[in-house]
Amino acid sequence: MTNPSDPLLVDAMWRAADLTRAYLAQDRARVAACLTNLDTGLLERIGSWLVLDHDQLFTRLGEPTMSVSRLKAVAALAPAETEFATSTAIHRVAAAETRLTPALESLALPDQIHALTICIVVMLLEAYGRTRSLAEIDDMTTDYEQRGYPRPYPVL
């Protein structure tokens, strides 16, 4: 893991983990709450952290499958205002019409974050199933705490 000495980066890595966990737990209220009232700088850091998470997962799993039915199910948890844009972009990637980066470029920053998180969650679910994926996220956040990076905000 990168050594995040920047407090905003610590906040971003936790919010990325919390958003991923909320999608995995199928907790629509927490999914919506994770990005509420955040400034652009923090949203950008969350997006950057998620890109790192995605790339590490992709490296670990190879090119994982992303079934359309699972994509639809996970994308349905996105906030209503982002669900259509997010779903459209992700389905373009799943159908091999485009790669992930070009699909996300036209989206607003919160939509990019949700779309990237949905891809991560689908990859985790396809590879490990829900229980093991949740355990992976819990292990990751425990590691954050053990390394001296506690969650900088109350649990959502």
Helix content: over 70%
Alpha carbon gap, first and last residue: 24 Å
Report on the biggest sheet.
Answer: none
**Number of DSSP helical runs:** 7
Tally the beta strands.
0
Cα Rg: 14 Å
Tell me, rounded to a whole number, the average pLDDT.
88
Q: In terms of per-residue confidence, which ranges show pLDDT below 50 for 5 or more consecutive residues?
A: none
Would you give an account of this structure?
With 156 residues, the protein is an all-alpha fold. Helices cover 73% and strands 0% of the residues. Helix 1 runs antiparallel to helix 2. It is globular, with a radius of gyration of 14 Å. The two termini are 24 Å apart. The mean pLDDT is 88.
Keywords:
156 residues; 7 helices; mainly alpha
Short structural summary:
The protein is mainly α. It has helices at 7-24, 28-34, 40-61, 68-75, 80-94, 100-105, 109-146.
